[in-house]
Amino acid sequence: MKLKHLLSMAAIAGLMATSAAMAADVRIAMVPKSLGNAFFEAARDGGNEAAKEIGGVELIFNAPAVVTAEGQIEVINALIAQRVDAIAISSNDPDALVPVAKKAMKRGIKVLSFDSAIAPEGRMLHMHPATAAGAAKAQLEMAVDAIGPEGEIAILSETPQSTNQNEWIEEMKKLLPSDEFSKLKLVDVAYGMGQSDKSYRETIALLRRYPDLKVIIAPSTVAISAAAKAVEDQDMVGKVYVTGLGLPSELAGYVHTGSIKSFAIWNPIDLGYSATYLAYDLIQKEEVQAGDELEAGRMGSFKLDDKLETSLPQPFVYDASNVDKYSKIF
Amino acid sequence: MTMTVSSNNRPSLDAPSTISAGSMLKSREIVLIGLLILVFVGGDLSSPWFLDIYNLLDSTAIFSEIAMMALSTALVIICRDIDISMASVMALSSLMMGLASQSLGLGALPLCLVGLLTGAACGFFNGFLVTRLKMPAIVVTIGTMSLFRGVAAGVLGNEKIAHYPDAFAAIGQSYFMDMVPYSFITFVLLSIVFIIVIHYTTIGRSIFALGNNPEGALFSGIRTDRLRFILFTLNGLMAGLAAVFLTSRLGSTRPDIANGLEMEVITIVVLGGVSLNGGKGTISGVFIAALVIGFLRLAITLNNVPGNILIVFTGTLLVVSVALPIIGQKYLPRLSKKKSE
User: Fold this and answer.
1) What distance lies between CA A26 and its chain's CA centroid?
2) What is its main location (chain A) (predicted)?
3) In whole angstroms, what is the distance from residue B124 CA to residue B116 CA?
4) Closest Cα partner for A224 from A277, A189, A260, A258?
5) Contact at 8 Å (CB) between B89 and B148?
6) Which of residues 101-120 of B touch A (CB under 8 A)?
7) Does A20 contact B at CB distance below 8 Å?
8) pLDDT tens for residues A160-218?
9) Touching check for A66 and chain B: CB below 8 Å?
10) Number of domains in chain B
11) Domain extent for A37
12) Are A277 and A299 in contact (CB under 8 A)?
C-alpha cells in the first residue's frame, strides 16, 4: 500500500510539474529530430522569437530522446490529439512519417517540414536549410582550403536514412569530378548514427583504415565534434583536418587547437524563425501552391518552387577569425 | 533456475492456501487497476485532451504491438525461461516482408503470412537451441538478438525498403468504425484467448506446473520440453504479428526498426505481476499493465514532456515493479502475522 502511494505521488507530481495550461490563439509545434541537440535548441529560440513577433502564437517544442521515426510518430500523435494548428518537423525518416502527417493534415493541421524533409505527400511545403548544391560545394571548398587541391577525404555522416546528409553527399559526389575538386579522392562514407560515441569510434576506424587520409568531412553537428575530438586524441592534429557542418559554440575549441580549420553552418536561429513564420503563413492561407511568396518577418519572403520547396540562403563559413564572436550566440 | 522443490511450490494445481500466490496476485491486479485509475486522473487533470475517446483509442496503436508480444512473453517467463530476441525477430520479419514486397510484388495477405512465418521460424530456432541443445534461454536469446538484427542490418545495409502495397499499409493505418486501430482489436481478442487458454485449460495448468516445479511437472506426465519449445515458437509468431502491424504502420523497413522494444515488452510483463522466477502471473495483469504503460505514455506526451523524461518514467516504473513483489514478500507475511495476533 505504501508503495502504491509512492507510485501515485510520483506519477501525479510528474504530471503536475509539467502541466502548462497556456491559452494562445494559434499553437504551432516544432518537432526536431531529437532532444539535447544545440542546433535545434537554437532553432527553438528562433521559433520563439517569431512567435513573439507575430503575437498570440504559442510554440510547442518536443521530440523523442533518440533519433527514431517511431519516437517522432508518438510525439506527432500527441500533437494531433492536442489539435495544434500547425506542425513543423525535421524528419528522421521521410517515408515512415507520411502516414501520421497525412492523418494530421486530414484533421486540418498544417504540416511542413524544415531542415530534413518528409516525402512530398506528407507535407504542404518543405524548407531546406540551404540548397543541397550550395552546402556540398561549401564543404568541399573548406576541404581544399585546409589541405590544398589534392588528397584522400572521407565523409562521416549521421544515419544512412538522414535525408539531408544523403542529399549533400550525393551533391558532393557529383562535384568531385569537376576541375576544382578532381584531385580529392573520396575513400569512404561512414555513419555515426547521430550519436557522439559511435561517431568517435567510426572516426578512429577511418583513421586506422586509411593512413593517408587528409580530411574528414562531417556534415552533422554531432559527428563533427566527435571527429575533431578523435583526431586530437589520436595526435593527428595537422595531419588530418576535420571540416563540415557544426555549431560555433561546440567547435570554437577545436578551431583554436587546429583539428578544425574552418566549418560552415546556416544560422539555426534563422531556420527556426523562418519555419515558424511559414507555419503561421500556412495557417492563414489554408492552401499554398508553386510560385507563392510567403512572408517571413525579418527574413523577407520565401518563394515556393514547383516541388513546394524553398531554401535559406547559402551556409556561412566560420574560422579562427570569427568563431569566437558567433560561439556566444549559438 | 534451480530445480529445488520447496514446500511452498508443490506441484498441486490449485493455488496454495497460504498467503502468496492467490491473494498476492489478486492484490497485484488491484494495484494495477489503482495505477490505471491514477493515470487517468493524472492525465485528465494535466491535459484537457486526455479524456477524449478518440485520442485514447488512437494512442492504442502505439502500444498494441508491444502489448501483444507481452502476452506470449509472459508465458515464456512463467515457464522460467526468458526471451529477449523479440525486437530483433521483428526486424527480421519486417525485412522479409519488405523483400517479398519489393522483389516478388506480393499482396497484403501473402505479405502477412511471410511476416508471421519468419517470426515463427525465428522462435522455432530459439526453442530448438533451448530445449534440444539444452542451452540456457538467456544465452540463446542474447545471441539470437544480435544474430537476427545483424542479418537484417547486413541485408539492408544502409538502405531501407519503403515499397508496400496500399492494402498492406491499411492494416496498421486504418481504424475499425473510424475509431479503433485494428492492432488494438487484435490485442484485446488475443488477450481473451490467452486468458481462457492459460487460466481455464489443461495447457494453462501445465504451464504453471512447469513454472512452479519443472521436475514435478515432468514426473506428473507433462512433456515439459515440448511445451517450452511451443512457447518459444509462439513468442516468435507473436513478434512476427507485431512486425506486420509496425511495418504496416510505418510503411517502411529500416535496419533499426523496433530497436529496444524487447525491454518495453519485459517491462509490461513484469509490471503485470509475472515473476521472473517463474510459476506466477496472470494474463489479466499483463493486459492491465499494458494499458497502464500505454496511457501513461499518452498522458506524458500530451503534456509535451520531452522524450528523455519519458524514459525516466518507464524506467522508474520497471524498477518499482520489480521491487514491489520483493518488498511485498518481505513485509507482507509479518503484517499478516501481526493481524492474526
Assistant:
1) 25
2) periplasm
3) 12
4) A260
5) yes
6) none
7) yes
8) 888 889 999 999 999 999 999 999 999 999 999 989 999 999 999 999 999 999 999 99
9) yes
10) 1
11) 23-128+268-312
12) yes
pLDDT at B10: 47
The pLDDT value recorded for residue B269 is 94
Residue with the three cell numbers 485528465? B44
> What tens digit of pLDDT does each residue of B6-23 get?
444 444 444 444 444 455
Residue B16 resides in a domain: no
Which CATH number characterizes residue B142's domain? 1.10.3470
Helices (H), A234-320: 248-257, 268-285
Both A107 and A136 in a single domain? Answer: no
A198 C-beta neighbours (distance < 10 Å), count:
17
Q: Where are the alpha helices (DSSP H) in chain B?
A: 20-46, 53-78, 86-99, 108-127, 137-156, 166-173, 182-200, 202-212, 214-219, 224-250, 261-271, 283-302, 307-340
Distance CA A301, CA B291 (A): 47
Between the CA of residue A244 and those of A197, A221, A261, B321, what are the distances in Å? 18, 8, 10, 46
Q: Which residues partner with A60 through β-bridges?
A: A29
Q: Cα–Cα distance between B16 and B8 in angstroms, integer?
A: 7
Between A137 and B5, the higher pLDDT residue:
A137
Distance CA(B243)–CA(A52), nearest Å, equals: 44
Residues of B in Cβ contact (< 8 Å) with A95: 160, 162, 250-252
Measured between CB atoms, does B52 come within 8 Å of chain A?
Answer: yes
Residue A62: give its domain's CATH number: 3.40.50.2300
Question: Are the beta carbons of A107 and A79 closer than 8 angstroms?
Answer: no
Q: Do A306 and A243 belong together in one domain?
A: no
Taking the C-alpha atoms of residue B246 and residue B182, their distance in angstroms, rounded to an integer, is: 12
Q: Show which of residues 77-96 on chain A sit within 8 Å of chain B, judged by CB atoms.
A: 77-78, 80-83, 93, 95-96
Structure-block grid coordinates of residue A247: 555549431
- How many CA atoms within 13 Å lie on the side-chain side of B95? 24
Domain, as residue range, for B198: 21-328
Other beta carbons within 10 Å of A102: 16
Q: Cell numbers at residue B320, please?
A: 518499482
Instruction: Please indicate whether residue B162 or residue B71 has the higher confidence score (pLDDT).
Output: B71
